Amino acid sequence: MLWRFCLYGFLKNQQYYDPFLVLAFLQKGLSFGMIGVLIGFRAICINLLEVPTGAVADVMGRRRSMIASFVAYIASFAIFGLCQPVWTLFAAMLLFSFGEAFRTGTHKAMIFDWLERQGQLSQKTAVYGRTRSWSKLGSAASVVIATGLVLYTEQYSSVFLFCIVPYALNIINFLGYPSYLDGPREHPDRVGGILRMLISAVSQSLRHRRLRRMLVESMGYEGLFQSSRDYVQPVIQAACLSLPWMLALGDRLALAEPQRVAVGVGVVFFVLHLFSSFASRGAGRLAARCGGEDRAARSLWLVNLLVFAAMGAGVLAGLSPLTILAFVLIAICQNFWRPILISRVASHADSAQTATVLSIESQAKSLFVAVAAPLLGWSVDRVAASHADLRFLPIAALGVIVSAVLLATGLRQSRRY
């Protein structure tokens, strides 16, 4: 089964749009503010749908939920690739949110269920890190493919359509999962079962001090990452169109503007995903070397603070390579962080409610994104209107503030235990 879990991650991360999402929206005529609203809308929809769909997965069957998720993804890709009006993009985001809501937490719960049946639950950090490593290898491969597609089509939006094929293949992969991974299901009273599962999981998450702290950390770390990660695309675009050596390379290869940007984005994201794969695989070793998952989490908060400070220095000094490097380092650290956080949450959650609790964890992240993404987009537009070179400074400032607050409160809480 482990190879099927890895195949799922590899195919799921064939997200050819991912390196070019903001650039695709800019090409459709959206401002940074509207892009932030669109991303915030996605987060709000996920926030509203995620916990109920997590409970549905636990009660009605996890495989069916995963298949429904990928059908919704495919529909959203078709709209993103073929449609231009803003209202259609919101419709596509709604479908994408359905896909995210049914998927998030569900597949992780299936992995932990399989490990428990195999008597290997103690290896959950290492195994989840391994499957996530294959996801990141899939991301690295997808960057190469996406770069080739943009070089060929000279259109950022066209890559959405090509995502349909690997996502359809993943539906076939799910059909090969054993039926017991559907989890315990309550057939006689499905609605009542969903409500009971939901109320019990929410109550557990709020009453359990350690679990509540992890949800706050997820809101800060993951929400901050999701709100800021895509801004590296216009930073790379600006570097490709302004740095002398990049201009000279583009002229020598006779590349049009989208093609030059595609090469720059492709190289950066390929390196990012390759190192992210190594980071995910090494999450278990990092936790062991730090003396536990809680200590590893505090170390990553410190690194996050320093890297966002370096990003701010890069923006202020006009050093695009330093700003790009900061974005890459933040993404790499997030791939150490994610397996460690998921393992910490799973250690404190009731195994029968794992998918629901993990969905609540993801909902906390989405709540942060729903608020931060539109504010960041608006702030970038406002700063760009008067100081174009400093337009990405609000991202660095928010990162420093959030990291400093959660690092300080985490150190204070650690003294209690």
CATH topology: Growth Hormone, Chain: A
The number of distinct structural domains comes to: 1
| Order of H and E elements | HHHHHHHHHHHHHHHHHHH
CA-based gyration radius: 21 Å
The overall strand count is 0
Q: What is the mean predicted local confidence, pLDDT?
A: 81
- The CATH architecture comes to Up-down Bundle
Helix content: over 70%
Low-pLDDT parts are none
How far apart lie the N and C ends?
Answer: 38 Å
Kindly report the name of the CATH homologous superfamily. MFS general substrate transporter like domains
Let me know the largest β-sheet.
none
Task: Write down the overall geometry.
Answer: globular
The SS-based structural class is mainly alpha
CATH top level label? Mainly Alpha
Strand content bin: under 5%
Question: What is the gist of this entry?
Answer:
The protein is mainly alpha-helical. It is built from 19 helices and no strands.
SSE topology sketch:
Elements lengths: L1 H11 L8 H7 L4 H29 L1 H21 L3 H18 L2 H13 L5 H30 L5 H4 L1 H12 L14 H18 L1 H20 L3 H9 L3 H10 L3 H25 L1 H8 L2 H25 L2 H29 L5 H33 L6 H22 L3
Helix pairs in contact: 1-7, 1-9, 3-4, 3-5, 3-10, 3-18, 4-5, 4-9, 6-18, 7-14, 7-17, 10-11, 10-18, 11-17, 11-18, 11-19, 12-14, 12-17, 14-17, 15-16, 15-17, 16-17, 16-19
